[in-house]
């Protein structure tokens, strides 16, 4: 490798354009929006400083807590759903046969679809009168199981989490396959000689070898679920009666539907704080495990 | 060789451009040398689409351009999605165009409060025969001061038309409801025959509010009560009459008037559900006329008729009404003066005058103007609705008057009632939200 590429100066220069863009369009707005969070502001006209009132109101608002609960349901469902399914599929599809390549692409496909398309497709699947879900249930004689999947507050969060998991398994599958392929064959051979096969090999050899990757996917899962927005806004818009509101849709509705830019900014700052907290907890927990 | 050729081409283009510019400036110089100086006028509007209505309005602007060679008109058609944002941006910089399209309600009143508008009453007074043919209440939304009108509506919104499928009503021998009892009977009969009584697509939660509760509540409470409650003067949304009105909505829900899952499909899907004969009725706005004109067959539309919502026993409001109001219109910038103002007022007449109103009405779009339309030019369903609206009174649409916050609360509150919530608790929340925005 040429030495120029290794020099720190060159790396810094090469990173600079991307870093500048990132600073300007991500980091600065984050602080800017945190600053707006202390104001009562309608988006135009004068903003008045109200200190922590927005946060006080948020903590007293039942919808904020419902949104947070819904978000935590999504986090749990994605950790329970996406990661184990992706890992299992990765283990099964590791071999580079035609069949496994086909299945891999099939699993990855929903990720390539626009989330709006995914939302619309599942909206039709869940449609009460003619939707696929209810039609199939009726065909196999489970008439009593049919539901207004997206309207019924008892089931709608669950119904929403399925397409979100479905469309997000793909990238984790690819990440896991890459991690598994990185395990050197010597380790495999050593494990075989030591008699580690099946579950034992998975638990004591494979998993520890890819633990770093698992931690990364956990972080991605948590932050991804906390900023989930597009599927929900397409499928239910946070309704009915705000029963599927997530933090991000709550922020969006407060800002752009009722024109409370200051309050919306406070909510988005809260989303960042909650994500940081959860990722921090995850970091501490997983570090203990691997140690 | 190739590169040289490209450079040559580039030079040629530059030369052409330069010569073109030169030519234009020469012409301009000549023009200004003429007897009178050209009047410069800018207009911004949102009739940018390919639909019949937008094309009609644009054609009148073009016509004005041709008829007034002394006016140098710069007309900008901005797509509706970004229109309000574009206008607020120039409003903040105080660089408003001379004429611009404004929406009725909070949009125009905010611009008025920011002192960006001036009255267009002169244009109306110059043509009294035109002014007097507007429907009652056409200027209400634009009368920010007594005797001064700030815009002339180019259209009308009618949000609570009761569409019904005549063949289903005939098939099950049901009377088209004119009273609440008849409505309940109709709902019962259709449910017994596995037909959805009323199609509703309330995923975007403004639908039930805009199309049903406004009209229903007005029949119970009367319009004066509502306006007082909005102003929070001598009336509150917790008053028994409003709770009663929400109770009627709950009665519809409890009697399964709407199809299951109404809160998870959108208005367009509900329209399709209705036009395909799965539902006997649908309560919707004039936009459904436009949507159906584009998606349904003439045969399907022939079976559909329109009327108003049924009367409520003992209600204070006039039952022969539809919620609605003036649509948007052109407004005049407060900075436009002299010759430009004269030209602008003429342009307002050209775009919203009698001929234009007739042409807009004939593009399957409601107007706030008493005009005769050629039946052959519009869909049969639109023709029926057009004649219905002419004969009915207009009552306020809730979200056009409530604060954004309270409108959001009532929208979600109606969904809550559909999921088992009580009218009392919803009424309380609406009251709280409206009180909060009236007395900050």
Automatic annotation (TrEMBL), chain A:
PROSITE patterns: ABC_TM1. Keywords: Cell membrane, Membrane, Transmembrane, Transmembrane helix, Transport. It comes from the Bacteria. The chain crosses the membrane at residues 12-35, 72-94, 106-125, 157-181, 202-226, 261-285. It is a multi-pass membrane protein. Residues 68-282 form the ABC transmembrane type-1 domain. Belongs to the binding-protein-dependent transport system permease family. This is ABC transporter permease protein YurN.
UniProtKB/TrEMBL annotation, chain B:
Keywords: Cell membrane, Lipoprotein, Membrane, Palmitate, Signal. Gene3D superfamilies: Periplasmic binding protein-like II (3.40.190.10). It comes from the Bacteria. InterPro entries: Bact_solute-bd_prot1, SBP. PROSITE patterns: PROKAR_LIPOPROTEIN. Residues 1-20 form the signal peptide. This is ABC transporter substrate-binding protein.
